[in-house]
Amino acid sequence: MSRAQGVRFISTRGQSPAATFRTALFDGLAPDGGLYLPDPLEASWLAGCAPATLVEIGTEIAVRWCGDTIARPTLSRLLADALDFPIPLVSLGVTDAALELFHGPTFAFKDVGARVMARLMAHLNADGGPLTVLAATSGDTGSAVAQAFFGVDGTRVVVLFPDGGVTPVQEAQFSTLGGNVQAVAVAGSFDDCQRLAKEAFGDARLRDRARLTSANSINIGRLLPQTFYYAHAALSSEGPVSFSVPSGNFGNVTAGVMAARMGAPIQSFVAATTVNDTFARYLASGRYDAQPSIATLANAMDVGAPSNLERLRALHGDDVRAIRLAITPSVHTDTQVRDAIRTVWERHGYVCDPHTAIGVLGLAALPASGGCRIALATAHPAKFRETVEPIIGRPVPLPAALAAALERPRLITRIDPNIRALTELLG
Ligand SMILES: *Cc1c(COP(=O)(O)O)cnc(C)c1O
Q1: What are the tens digits of pLDDT across the range 268-323?
Q2: Distances, alpha carbon 104 to alpha carbons 78, 85, 390, in Å
Q3: With DSSP H G I counted as helix, E B as strand and the rest as coil, what are the percentages for the chain, rounded to 5?
Q4: 248 alpha carbon to ligand 1 midpoint, in Å?
């Protein structure tokens, strides 16, 4: 396919025709139930790129994915508008660092993907009918998607979350907006929420009637911007870099693998998880065995059936040995998380939230001699201050925007965990 049209997007299940960027973005899931992947990824072209700003590198990647669908200056403007917050690299000793992805409006890394995706969708839907963005969340996706689309004309956001399964701060961030954002508490777990969303997207009539589009980590529009910071951090470093990625649905580490395929100088990856260790068990045995999720301190990573594993498998020719070479698993208990929060504070004066702490714990699984080791810092510690403050023995001030959200009344609809209830709500 010509450059003008950008790369094609193919399904992980190989039973659907190749799609354009626009189709992949708006449909979310391929017709065969698979997830979209760009094909080809134009291997290695990033290796020859000079260091540049995040938005400049992002524009280069996005131009290749979108082709003529969106003009380069427009892409550049949309990306600059979405990524209007800093992504600093903070040193944690001689070879280690934390890449802080949490300075967006919801103070978690999902802002990066969600804000770019919302602007791409709003731009490409300029003369279409109203879209319903359906998002299942275990905590942070919901707020990132709600905030990303809040007030965007021609869009409605429906956030499905496990009733009582998110923190008060997370809940406040997506349930106090009102307007075009509807917060829906499901009587069940995050896996129930994810299953409901999958069922809704699998129902062609419902999908067309409600003009459903997905915004959770299965959407390629969220994965694309997540490749930017890996490429930017790797191209900005002098030696080779490795990443430890706190992982739940494995979208973030999948984006990292894509950045490496495109030529970003990255040596290796660790996927660090909670005791929800489906990935580690899959690598050890070669068999995929999803489990019900277990609640931990890092609740945005409590996923027993990581959806992006399907993409990782497809990217590696469904060869578990190839995935083992690319990604090392690292599994951590709540006790280890508490210890890491304390140790990092004592040694470096750096305050980690539980998700970031798992990223820092994962650093130990990366080679010490291999250049800069970067842990992705995925949430602001103030979002988890109930956990963090007793451990470090000092208050973690709440950012002003979070404090304001906590004061506002919650606007929540409650439903049973079945597709009938969701269909009715979607209208
Ligand atoms: C979602 C999330 C993760 C996990 O990212 P995945 O792409 O689902 O692997 C890690 N940390 C935080 C704070 C998150 O919100």
Answers
A1: 999 999 999 999 999 999 999 999 999 999 998 999 999 999 999 999 999 999 99
A2: 15, 6, 26
A3: 45, 15, 35
A4: 5
Sign of dihedral through CA atoms 374, 57, 39, 211?
positive
Per-residue pLDDT reduced to its tens digit, 157-178:
999 999 999 988 889 989 999 9
102: CA distance to ligand 1 center in Å? 11
Virtual torsion, Cα 12, 10, 59, 61, nearest 10 deg? 70
- Amino acid (one-letter) located at 101: L
pTM above 0.85, yes or no: yes
* Cβ pair 354, 384 in contact under 8 A: yes
Contact 215, 135 (CB under 8 A): yes
Average pLDDT value for the chain? 92
Ligand 1 pocket: which residues have CB below 6 Å? 108-110, 140, 217, 246-252, 300-301, 355, 378-379
Pairing type for strands 89-91 and 96-100 reads: antiparallel
